[in-house]
Predict the structure.
Amino acid sequence: MTFLRACALSDLQEDVPKRVDLNGVPVSVVRTDEGVFAINDICSHANVSLSEGEVEDCMIECWLHGSSFDLRTGKPSGLPATKPVAVYPVKIEGDDVLVSVNQES
């Protein structure tokens, strides 16, 4: 599994998504009281950026239609989204947030 530097941990505000591009993959990196999570930044219901939405209780809400996705699993909490979005492994090394977006295990 290959990890890429997404951002500095110190650049992340709690519950404020940060959009990054890792090898052409749009990723929303979010720091919560439960940890740091990386989720695909494109809503599975509409082609909009999840990082523009609100974060609460380890869920990120799509600003366009209100679907929320669990940052831990990518599963939607309700309509209109029915499909999950990808979540990615995260490692913290010093002040670096590293994310693996490759599909290999």
